[in-house]
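Fill-in record for Peptidase family M48.
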Amino acid sequence: MKKIIALSLVFMFAVSCSTVPITGRKRINIVSDAEILPASFAQYEGFLKENKISTDKKKTNEIQMVGLNISKAVDKFMRANGMVSEANSYRWEFNLIEDPTVNAWCMPGGKVVFYTGILPICDNTDGIAAVMGHEVAHAFAKHGQERMTSAYGQQLGGVLVALGTSNKDPKAQQLWNTAFGISSTVGLLAFSRTHETEADKLGMVFMIMAGYNPEEAINVWIRMSQRAESGSAPPEFLSTHPSNETRIQNLKAYLPTAISLAKKYNTMPIKS
């Protein structure tokens, strides 16, 4: 049984390896769009019914216009790079929710939510574009599907640990299972940091393609850093996100590359 599960893991990773466009990072994904998108769209509709959509027409229009521009940049890239069927699968939608939480997110398939609480951090239209680009990038890179794949692998890994320690005393089994739980959790946290850094980079490219000022992506994280209370943030090692300072430095370093890539992608002909 152990050999079968181990071989299944190896086979799963071997046949489901692909590359994230633009960044070139190798990823493992066994979750298809056909499997995840209907659930994503349904959950989004449920969320909107249970939460208060903002009545601020000016801010809502701004969010939706920026979202439309960013999504057009993503769509342009995909169609210019032979990803037509994938581009057709997105159902872009952008909503502003009355909530003081400093957050925004994008579900697989292009369903975006901004909370009113993040608007002071955005500060201006370019700041909204920076956050929008980052969130849209999560959907573009299929981070949700990749995390689901990781969760499947974690579950199978837990089965392997249980089988491998089945002949040991209960205390030893508990020790090994605890160790696996800690290591796998930290591993997934690190994986999330990888996604966040990748979304920062992709988002900067997309916001430039859409005509926004990329330096505002850096300023967003400067404002986020200024907002954070001293000592309130967890250590970066145990955080699902890079530290604000790390993000600021990474974005500053990536800015010339993002400008070059955006110029290249904006001049690419659209393939039929």
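KEY FINDING: The first helix runs from residue 2 to 15.
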